[in-house]
Amino acid sequence: MFSTRNFNRSKPILFILILFPSLLWAYQFVTGDLGVNPIEKLMDELGLMALKLIIITLMITTLSNIKPLKSIVVLRRMIGLFAFYYVCLHFSTYIVLDHFLDMQFIIQDIIKRPFITFGFISFLFLIPLASTSTNNMIKRLGFKLWKKIHYLIYPVAILASMHFYVLVRADKTEPVIYMGIIILLLFHRIFKRLTRPQLAQSRGSFPYRQD
Ligand code: HEM
């Protein structure tokens, strides 16, 4: 049931399911169906989707340590790249629709408002992850260096959840839940490295070997 073949087969459906919300929100934005503050709503939906996908990407790494679920790792690259896609849309909405490409204001905003600073650093850290995601890049960099670069997913996730935590004023439950999940996944990774360093280093966790 959880074979590599089945996970690979599920990819096209997963692709459509993850892409669909962005198309729906774009449509609702154009038709004026995103409520009284459509830009804010669009930005929130895109940001939240990006954060959820980052967390799912981390979860896949952890789940792939469970033997029957080992093959789930074949879904990681696609979901990780979708997280980047949603972050890019989120950031573009902020730059283009919210601030009309006023770069001077945007730079000031990134420096002055801590939650924007966290989001921006998180976005910057995601760029090397996305740009080294191809099999060709893994070969060129070597697996060890590639893996080191991809540990950036943890600071990305922590900064993104802090970005969310700081910006929410009233009920902080949702960002706290996301932060909790990220910290648990990080602890699991550290624990695994400390207890089974040779396994953590091995090619057993090579990300796309079954692609
Ligand atoms: C990995 C990168 C990022 C992630 C995962 C992320 C995620 C989020 C999340 C979850 C929200 C709150 C959604 C809600 O309230 O329901 C949000 C809001 C926001 N984000 Fe980001 N974000 C990222 C990067 C950025 C960047 C680079 C900027 C701009 C420089 C930015 C600007 C904003 C703004 C202005 C809001 C508030 C929107 C509003 O309610 O007015 N984010 N983001």
What report would you give on this structure?
This protein is mostly helical and 211 residues long. It has one domain. Helix content is 77%, strand content 0%. The chain has ten helices and no strands. Helix 8 packs antiparallel against helix 9. It is globular and about 50 Å long. The chain starts with a helix and ends in a 10-residue tail after the last helix. The structure holds protoporphyrin IX containing FE. Protoporphyrin IX containing FE binds next to helix 2, helix 3, helix 5 and helix 8.
Task: Please sum up the structure shown.
This protein is mainly alpha-helical and about 210 residues long. The chain is built from ten helices and no strands. It has one domain.
Distance between the termini: 17 Å
Number of strands: 0
Low confidence ranges: 202-211
In DSSP terms, counting alpha (H) and pi (I) runs of 4 or more, how many helices? 10
Average pLDDT works out at 93
Count of the separate structural domains: 1
Q: Radius of gyration, rounded?
A: 18 Å
Overall geometry: globular
Q: What small molecules accompany the polymer chains? A: protoporphyrin IX containing FE
Topology as a string of helices (H) and strands (E): HHHHHHHHHH
Strand content: under 5%
The major pleated sheet works out as: none
Structural class: mainly alpha
What is the helix content? over 70%
**What oligomeric state is this?**
single chain
